[in-house]
Amino acid sequence: MSESTATREPPAFAVSKKRLRLLGLTLDDAIKVFFGGNAFVSVIVLALITIFLFREGFGFFGQNRQNLRIYRQAGLEYVDFIRTQTDDHTALTRYLSDLRLRQLSFFLQEKKLSLADANAALAAFDDFADRFGTAIDPLRAMVSDLTEQATEIKTKFIVAGDKREERRQLTAEGKTADAAAVKIDEVNFTNELKPLLATLPTYRAVNRELEQKLKGVLDTAPPPPTPELAVRFDRFKDLVQIYVAGFPAVEKNLETWDYLKSVPVSQAFTAFVFGHEWLTASFWQDWYGVVPLFVGSLMVSLVALVIAVPFGVGAAIYVNQIATAAEQKFIKPCIEFISAIPSVVLGFFGIAVLGQALRLLSQQSWLSWVPGFPYSERLNILTAGCLLALLAVPTIFTLAEDALNNVPRAFKEASFALGASRLQTIVKIIVPASLSGIVSAVLLGLGRVIGETMVVLLCAGNRIAIPDFSAGLAVITQPVHTMTGIIAQEMGEVVRGGIHYRALFVVGLLLFLLSLLINYVAQGIVRRYRISIG
To answer: 281 by DSSP, 3-state: which?
Structure first.
């Protein structure tokens, strides 16, 4: 074969080069345009996503401000000042119920009494608890009446708004006669709120009566059977004193309350960013506070990282530094195959297998020392965190192994030449040299799990509440809801353009910005790592 024949280009390649020359482009120019075009498209897509989220969520804060304005003008805020008292009293009765349960356990386990005898021994405490619980009844009845009045005012306002919208639509369609026939009953808040505000003297009298009842009930409290329970009961008495001492502040709020006071734009923003309630489709008042959703996402992600980081980084170190070639060929595909499992399949696995298995494991007596064990909620932070860890391991493993591969071979050889063992070389040379890359792998793993939807929707428990951190490490056995889960759960039920619809888009925007921040920090660490290695 001649040299010219051996180096001859394939016909198709030659034709392509000819076409490029006709376009005035070289092959290098075409490659640059192709890959540069892909990067440009990525930027465009990112910009479009950002614009879309801002456009759909932009009107939320204005709508939320109007939502808070109605809450004030209709008197709901006024009633909630009083309702806080009844809610705090309910919390105190729950404390009493816990005290009774502890005393019952003492009589059954320590005194070896029968259930009937134990209940008989608690008769005086039950009478005390009953009198404490019924002391709030007059105030609770008053709150019920005020709730009906405020709800009626709010309903009138909403109906008037619906009528205005109906008239606007008819006018836009050119049906002026029909639009003029739509009757709108405007709400005069000054007149509507007069009966509500007139109840202030009655409230003061009910408050004084409640204060006297609570003090009288405390004076007749039976002594607890053990010193430990006596300490807890003294704490209950202190809480009641604090509760009663707060009555004048409630009265002051009612006296100075003004329905005409404007709601600043900043309050609509802070109510979302720092709000502790996410309550929709409520007959009373809808609240859009992202804190419980953000905390839920953060808790599940932290549990996932606590589990995934040791496994992912440990596996990367073993495969890269210790494993034989045969072990590498077996381990790497197995770990990377995990990322191919659909998240919904993992969610079903969590519901049917993992959640139940962890709950049964928590009920083993030899594990009673573990915080939160035993527990009854099989769908919780721990279950979702374990499954998310499984999703994060391939990401952390792959990126951490790449970081270990980029450590110059001379580092290892110099360490061995100085007499260091393999373990010493790994711990003191290889891992520190690749630490920046490992940290970036962990951050990208965090970005992977914090944006996961199906697993947390199916396995986190979907309770919209801030976990009780007073439980310590046992907090991971509590159910939560997450930002991704709330979007997936509620988006199909909302009215396009409504406040609930826009609130979900603002949650999505927050999640999007959070993921961008995590990835930006991770990429910055990678760049610094590459510079230091270079």
So the answer is: coil
CB atoms within 10 A of CB 471: 13
Report which secondary-structure segment, H or E, holds 279.
strand 278-279
Q: Where are the domains of the chain?
A: 3-57, 76-258, 292-533
Q: For residue 14, give Cα distances in angstroms to 1, 7, 10, 34.
A: 20, 12, 6, 19
How far out from the chain centre does Cα 423 lie? 41
Residue 21 tokens, joined: 């020359």
Count helices and strands (H / E) in the chain: 27, 2
Angstrom distance (rounded) from CA 504 to CA 510: 10
| DSSP H/E element including 287 | strand 287-288
d(CA 243, CA 16): 84
CATH code of the region 292-533: 1.10.3720.10
Cα 89 to Cα 197, 253, 255, 279: the distances in Å are 23, 19, 22, 22
Which pTM was predicted? 0.84
pLDDT digits (tens, 9 = 90+) for 162-186: 888 888 888 888 888 888 888 888 8
What is the spatial distance between Cα 194 and Cα 208, in angstroms, rounded to a whole number? 23
